[in-house]
Specification:
The protein is about 30% helix and about 25% strand. It has helices at about 10, 25-35, 55-60, 70-80, 95-105, 115-130, 165-175, 195-215, 245-255, 270, 305-310, and strands spanning about 20, 40-45, 65-70, 90, 110-115, 135-140, 160-165, 180-185, 220-225, 260-265, 275-285, 290-295, 315, 325-330, 340-345, 355, 380. Strands 1, 11, 12, 13, 14, 15, 16 and 17 form an eight-stranded mixed beta sheet that branches. An eight-stranded parallel β-barrel has the order 2-3-4-5-6-8-9-10. Strand 5, helix 6 and strand 6 form a beta-alpha-beta unit. The protein binds pyridoxal-5'-phosphate. Pyridoxal-5'-phosphate (PLP) binds near residues 68, 226, 227, 229 and 269.
Length: about 375
């Protein structure tokens, strides 16, 4: 098994746990996306919720990408880190008045609106400021993302988006809301999608809905197909980049944009997950009856994905080249779900060894909590160590 390239001597000087970001890999990822999109009517808005770390945001903004935000504070963070307001979109089922004000006051590009009551409130608040708010309607496309149920968002009845059956009533309502300007449709079917046929289903559905709008005499300058492209968590060293080539080719082939129409993407995980690792130190090797536990100083407060969605992360012992042994890799938090991996084979470990939990750049640092009064993990970067 190849180990990732890590500056282990430098890590020895640092307090653990911490996030380590490989900036060369982030740049290679951003360049790959740029290459696939620059000669097409495609625009990528990075989903800030995947990781709002300001160093990463600045790097992503420098490639010309926009930001997809799901809270008022994410909008402020994106602006602070160099994303221009005309490249910011704002999604979310529950936007507070305060957050809508933030969007309006900063003239963001558009609100991805998810319900009639939300449209009414945005219309009202925009009217008070004598502004017109640009709106993309988030439609629930009823497409199966074939991923974990907690990260499926576009199937059947769920809290996200407007159901297709409700579109006529929504349009009718919008025609009376004079401070709104419809700019397009928005979809998002889920996350960590590796079976690309789900995106093909989305394209078919998006075209069908677009056709219905055309029949109502409404052209849509923008189709926003959301994010969700998955990465290979099993083999981060062999497959460090998501398959951007296949992903964008699929949309080119199956969405067939109208002349002048723009396709927006909101990638989060596939941009930042591969470049991040949670680096943690072995506190104790505890010998059980049937198995051995590797108790490490990082826990679910630093990286909650395994506890929250039974997510798999590749784990390496950076300090050992001894033979592999199976361990349950667990954190110190007082919760039984604070387990990174069960019966995972890694190089034989001892107290003080450094371990890397790989592909942790997305939904890792951004989901860290202070449960048990723990510190929020620090972040270090390959080019600043
Ligand atoms: C979370 C989210 C994304 C990003 O999803 P990834 O799986 O990280 O690519 C994009 N759009 C919306 C609306 C989201 O909620």
């Amino acid at each position: 098994m190849i180990k990732g390239i890590f500056p282990i001597e430098k890590f020895e000087q640092l307090d653990t746990p911490f996030y380590y970001y490989d900036m060369e890999l982030l740049r290679a990822t951003l360049q790959a996306i740029k290459t696939e999109t620059e000669n097409r009517p495609f625009h990528v808005h990075y989903a800030v919720k995947a990781n709002a770390n300001s160093r990463l945001l600045r790097e992503i903004a420098s490639y010309g990408f926009g930001a997809d935000c799901v809270s008022g504070n994410e909008i402020l963070q994106a602006l602070e880190c160099g994303f221009p307001p005309e490249k910011i979109v704002f999604a979310g089922v529950g936007k507070s008045d305060k957050e809508i004000h933030i969007g309006l006051d900063n003239d963001i590009f558009c609100f991805n609106a998810e319900s009639i009551p939300e449209l009414e409130v945005i219309n009202h608040l925009a009217g008070e400021k004598n502004k017109k708010a640009r709106i993309a309607l988030r439609v629930n496309p009823n497409v199966d993302a074939r991923t974990h149920k907690y990260i499926t968002t576009g199937l059947g009845e769920n809290k996200f988006g407007i159901n297709e059956e409700d579109l006529p009533a929504t349009l009718e309502k919008m025609s009376g809301l004079s401070n709104l300007k419809m700019v397009g449709l928005h979809f998002h079917i889920g996350s960590q999608i590796t079976d690309l046929s789900s995106f093909e289903d989305l394209c078919v559905k998006a075209r069908k809905i677009q056709q219905w709008f055309l029949e109502q005499g409404i052209a849509l300058p923008i189709l926003n197909v959301g994010g969700g492209l998955g990465i290979n968590y099993q083999h981060p060293n062999h497959f460090p980049l998501a398959d951007f080539e296949a992903y964008f080719r699929l949309f080119k082939k199956h969405l067939m944009p109208e002349p002048g129409q723009k396709i927006y993407f909101e990638l989060g995980r596939s941009i930042v997950a591969p470049c991040g690792s949670l680096i943690s130190r072995v506190l104790f090797v505890k010998e059980g009856i049937q198995k051995n536990f590797l108790i490490v100083d990082g826990g679910m407060t630093d990286l909650i994905r395994p506890a929250l969605y039974q997510a798999y992360h590749h784990i390496e012992n950076l300090s050992s080249i001894e033979q592999n042994e199976p361990y349950d890799v667990v954190g110190p938090i007082c919760e039984s779900s604070d387990v990174f991996a069960e019966q995972r084979s890694i190089n034989r470990a001892k107290r003080g060894d450094l371990i890397a939990i790989r592909s942790a750049g997305a939904y890792g640092e951004s989901m860290a909590s202070r449960y048990n009064c723990r510190d929020i993990p620090a972040a270090y970067y390959s080019d600043l160590l």
